[in-house]
Amino acid sequence: MIDYVARQATKVIRLDCDSPVNGTSRTSYKTYFDPATSPHSLRNFIWHIVKEARVQVSTLLSSLIYLERLRSKLPVLSEGLPCTIHRIFLATLIVTAKYLNDSCPKNIHWAKYSGLFNVTEINLMEIQLLYLLDYDLRFSEEEACALFAPYMSIVARQASTRASAVDKVAKAGKARALSQEQNPPQPLTPSDDVPLAPCPVSRPISLVRGLARRLS
């Protein structure tokens, strides 16, 4: 689920990692949030927050609704820094948690969970998101089902694949057991004309046995 949410979040806004900002290259930002190598990649960021805040599945899944609403409201040519997606996701998750739950962490706690943003930044993120969403967080069952359907289909395919793999393993095990019943292995018997050599006892074992006899 975290991978799916991360992919959907990256669709909200296009990232510009190369253009300079106030004369400063964005290369450092790109490296810091690189999805392949950085511990601050969006996927790791989401996983860390979900773990620390103990985010419920329903809350994480419902954040997709507001991510999609925000994507539809932003101008097509909108661009942001690599950390912009982190800000968008965190603000969306906070708003979702507050809307769906009677009790949820305060922004000071979200700042601690994120490890990247302070309380002032998080307060601003939340206000900006609510403004862009026209302060309307209501959603219908139809809207939720439409946005959840792609993820549910992925889960269904994965479950089907796992069930198929388990079925193949079970059939292979049954076939092997049946084959062994029909053709039981013959016991190995030593040849009469070849005497069996005694198994050598390693020196450490001999020493231990000798000490045991002395102590007995």
From TrEMBL:
Q: Where is the signal peptide?
A: none
Disordered as annotated region, ranges: 176-197
**Which molecular-function annotations from GO does this UniProt entry contain?**
cyclin-dependent protein serine/threonine kinase regulator activity; protein kinase binding
Its transmembrane ranges are none
Q: Name one GO cellular component term.
A: nucleus
Q: Which Gene3D superfamilies match?
A: Cyclin-like
Q: What is this protein called?
A: Uncharacterized protein
Please name the source species. Armillaria solidipes
Lineage start: Eukaryota, Fungi, Dikarya, Basidiomycota, Agaricomycotina
